[in-house]
Amino acid sequence: MEPEEMEQLLQKILQDFRNTSSLHSGLNYDQIKSRLMPFTLDEPGGIDAVVKAIDAYLDTSVNTGHPGFLRAFWGPSEPASIVASLLTDVRNTTMHSFAVAPSATIIETEMIKAISDLAGFPGHGIFTTGGSNSNEMGFLCAREDALPGSSVNGLSGQNLRAFSSVEAHYSVDAAANMIGIGTDALIRIPCIDGKMDPQALNEAIIQEKQNGNLPFIILSTAGTTVRGSFDDLNAISEIAQKHGIWHHVDAAWGGAALFSNKHRNLLNGIEKADSFAFDAHKMIGSSMVCSAFLVHDESILSRTMSHTNRGDYLFDDPNKELSLGRISPQCGRRADALKLWFSWLEQGKKGLGERVNSCIDASKHLAHLVEEHPQLILVSFSFSNVCIRFTPHSNETIEQGNQRVRKVRNYLEDHAKCMVLDSILDNQLVIRFTASHPNVDKAATEEFLSNLIEANEKISL
Ligand SMILES: Cc1ncc(COP(=O)(O)O)c(C=O)c1O
Q1: Which of 3, 10, 176, 249, by CA, is between 20 and 30 Å from 195?
Q2: Sign of CA dihedral 362, 405, 252, 344
Q3: Is residue 95 part of a domain?
Q4: Which atom of ligand 1 is nearest to the CA of 291?
């Protein structure tokens, strides 16, 4: 492909950027597949084949910039982040060694310091493949901290135990699975109003110690997936310190509040944790993925990633101490930090904070409307998450109420009105709304509400 042709294709893609006309194609798997075909060619298809493929992809993929895209914690990428992503593609940088990624290494290091600064952390960490991986990194560092040398010697017959709330994200189970302790070694602590109960946590730790097991990590959540609630980080840090256990905060979702002067207090106490996860690809709008794992102890990452001592052919340059590959589980790694860098430069902390404020304002507006509506029950509102149920019809059982929620959600999605999640909260299915991108403004929440009411009236049970 000639550079001019590439420019032409990029223009074509960017023209679609502001298009929010339809949410999704409404096509099923087979229809989408046949629209996308062919997937391979024996003979060169040239630029025309690529143009057709771009059209097919734009026609059949979900438009995350649509104001009705309410299903996830992300929406369309920030323009500055798209530019950064393209820049890293053009130079095709990989992050393992300073020698091949000098500027990207410095940018990542400075972004780690900048995020750390907002949280009162000293400035150490690494960009990862996402919040799930950042949580897993927390588990790995905690294991090395509890069992020094375990990255080399393994678990030495110890039964490690991890603790998180019942409302923590499923990546905590993934972390337990992937570090080899198994998901049964994760003790899920009950919540009070969506927050981990510190007393129950303390008792569970004491119990596990009495059982001869080794508690090694408490994972608290700042911004839970369904309810958007924030665990009491001060209280949990105190318990962690008392028992000598690593405290990791999953701030993948709620970490965006670090940028907002108005909502920063949600994260009070984060500075006392040992590590935390932060996703810039959620409310901050960086394109997928842009996630950081931050730690207090500078030495823990190199101790945990001791296997990188074997990568001498990569790390034998004079600046090997600067090579971020030495503290990452990845070898090839994208220069994701540039995406946050460009957005931060363009919008400043102030602009990114306003983005967070406007998402929360939109959700607050919806929460008020739901509270006042006779057909709806506001189950919870925290951060940008609004959980909703329908006022039960007379003699309607919980199960029938659950079916109503599921049918409404499907109706809204099938009719391309909006895409929203449903999820179990306190044993009942709820509609979970979140505003995670600026196209979800107050007008969009009103549109969502009227669609919700219409769907509730139209579905037949
Ligand atoms: C609280 C929480 N932690 C972690 C994750 C996982 O993040 P990622 O999708 O970046 O792996 C999510 C995803 O939504 C989340 O809600």
Answers
A1: 176
A2: negative
A3: yes
A4: 10
